[in-house]
Amino acid sequence: MSEAQGGMKQFEEFRLDTSNECLWHQGKPIELPPKPFAVLRYLIEHPGRLITHDELLEALWPETYVQPQVLRTYMLDLRKALGDSAGQPRFIQTIPKRGYRFVANVTELKENAETKFDPSPAGNPALAEARPRIVNREEEIACLKSQFKLASAGQRQMVFVTGEAGIGKTSLVDAFCELMNSSAEASSARGQCVEGFGGKEEYYPVSEALAQLCASPGGDRACHVLARMAPAWLAAIGREAKDFPEASLPPMRERMPGDLCAALEELASDKPLILILEDLQWADDSTLHLISALARRRAQTKLLLVATYRGQDLITDHPLKSLKQDLRLRRLCTEIALAPLAKNAVKELLIRELEQDELPPGLTAFVHRRSEGNPLFVIAILEHLTAQGFLVCEEVLGQRRWVQKAGAEELEAGIPDGLAQMIELEVAHLSEQDQRMLEAGSLMSVAFPSWAVAAALQMDPTEAEEACDELAKRLYFVDRAGQDELPDGTLSTFYVFAHGLYREVLWRKQSEARRAKRHIRIAERLAELFSGREGTIAREMAMHFESAGSWQRALTALKTAAHHAIERKSHAEAEELLEHALRLAGNLRDLEREVAKRDLCDDLARVRETMLLIPAVK
Is the domain of 220 the same as that of 75? Predict the structure, then answer.
């Protein structure tokens, strides 16, 4: 897609900002992940005509084999974002077994004061000071500031900040607290939930926040208030209540939530208090009960409670789910859900980290696609590129500039060590059965069907699908994406990894021998499912045989795929498949290699001869 096609395109009440990769609906932005956005953009840039599956895959994933069913996943995302229906489409019409057509009228808008998206804070001076620390979070900072304003007026506020690992929850809270503390408008205290501590130590993050509050400048007042109103809480953080003459209750009394609530309200009576509790997905029940009490009490106080958590990590019956749902129904809390960064925001982040305005060509697109807009992944990928020497700082025209020293294949090859370790740690916490399921799914692509998991692990298909469903409910990096109809008429659910890096780590985690066995089982199951129609899936079978190092079977499958392409008069595709087979033939033993190469060269010659004759026939 060329730069000439950038700008703003309107269809009905929606606008597509191709420069900043954002979809707008009635003036409000709708964040789309990079891949669904790319699909929507391609459809909108070719309105009114049939876009085949092959055309979409070739346009968006050139030189990369991607399963066609991945497109169905992205269509589900797009229809959800657009409020569209497959049965009665306003925007995207499905042409069964062929492709899609964008049916709404599309108009090109000239950029002006009304349509141009300006990511800078110049138009909103109140947000300008948040810019140095984070990117593309102006609305979220504004929401926190709005909640702080209400709290400053004596209306206690509760805010949940949610999002996946690495999305920037802590960075957002850091930037907000810096704004408030630098202006001396508020005091703050912060506690961190720690995985594994929830069942061992009650009120762990609350105790950490209280200790920080008492040790801060002006912390004497906090100590005096706690000594008078909640001495057991003071004693729990290692302070002796008897040292404060205000102490009126026995210091060894059990910690009571009501005492602390009253003390915090007293502390927030004059100057606003921001209480931050992070990673509530690991909080103990007592801490959650205290949060519930703080949010529900009616006394006026200048208290803002900010809690962060990874919603995708919550099990179905996690008490935090019901707590937040109840508070939202009663309008006692606000939620800020952080979305991935758009491409322009990733560019801004790279510019900030590299400290240069002009980036190497293609770097932004590569990092955005690879990270899928996750800020932690962006930084990790950038560090990996510099550590590996793919990005080098050199003297250019008297200035120090970062220059790209690697081609696309080298850039794609590695996974940042830090990210790989983080993902491996997450996976290690799962049961052995969960890990096996995920490993099997990774053998396909970013999208994987349950039948393939069943084949790889030699499981009952129904049991495999139920297990995959359970994983999708519990894990934030696996989503249920839809269903495929198999040749025998049965339905098989398919799933997607939220980030391609998770899939890669899980694929590499398996030993070569284990991977090979599983790839072969999937290929053989494909042959069973499509018996009599092997040509339609021969290319996919070849991919699995090649991954397993089963070279002769991979060649056979590629030749079958090439003959199927010839039958469809797709001679260029047949040529590509045969050339690939010829390269793989180099892995065979001497005699087998010579025979295979001779046969393949004959097939290639016939295909190329036919391709030369086609113009003459026309």
Answer: no
> What dihedral angle (degrees, nearest 10) is formed by the CA atoms of 289, 294, 298, 299?
140
450-457 vs 461-474: helix axis angle to the nearest 10?
Answer: 120
pLDDT one-digit tens code per residue, 536-574: 889 999 999 999 999 999 999 999 999 998 988 888 889
Closest of 51, 33, 65, 70 to residue 484, by C-alpha: 70
Confirm whether 419 is domain-assigned.
no
499 is a domain residue:
no
Cα 614 from Cα 521, distance rounded (Å): 40
CATH number where 186 lies: 3.40.50.300
Give yes or no: residues 168 and 152 share one domain: yes
For 317, the domain range is: 126-337
Joined tokens for residue 291: 């949060």
Distance of CA 429 to CAs 189, 313, 472, 476, 499, Å? 30, 12, 16, 14, 18
Are 299 and 377 members of one domain? no
Q: What is the three-state SS of 540-600?
A: HHHHHHHHCCCHHHHHHHHHHHHHHHHHCCCHHHHHHHHHHHHHHHHHCCHHHHHHHHHHH
Low-confidence spans in the chain with pLDDT less than 50: 1-5, 111-132, 616-618
Tell me which DSSP letter residue 57 carries. H
pLDDT at 218: 79
Query: Hey, what are 513's tokens?
Result: 């021998």
Res 408: pLDDT = 65
Please give the single-letter amino acid code of residue 553.
R
* DSSP H or E run through 190: strand 187-192
Contact 434, 426 (CB under 8 A): no
Is the same domain home to 193 and 55? no
Widest CA span in the chain = 104
Q: Considering the domain boundaries, does residue 603 fall inside one?
A: yes
Copy the structure tokens of residue 393.
Answer: 């700082």
Q: Is residue 365 in a domain?
A: yes
The CA distance from 463 to 475, in Å, is 18
Please give the backbone phi and psi of residue 242, each rounded to the nearest 5 degrees, phi first: -65, -20
Nearest to 438 by CA among 367, 397, 497, 481: 497
d(C-alpha 384, C-alpha 545), whole Å: 31
CA 193 to centroid of chain Cα atoms = 23
User: Strand, helix or coil at 322?
Assistant: helix
- Given a contact cutoff of 8 angstroms between Cβ atoms, the answer to whether 111 and 161 are in contact is no
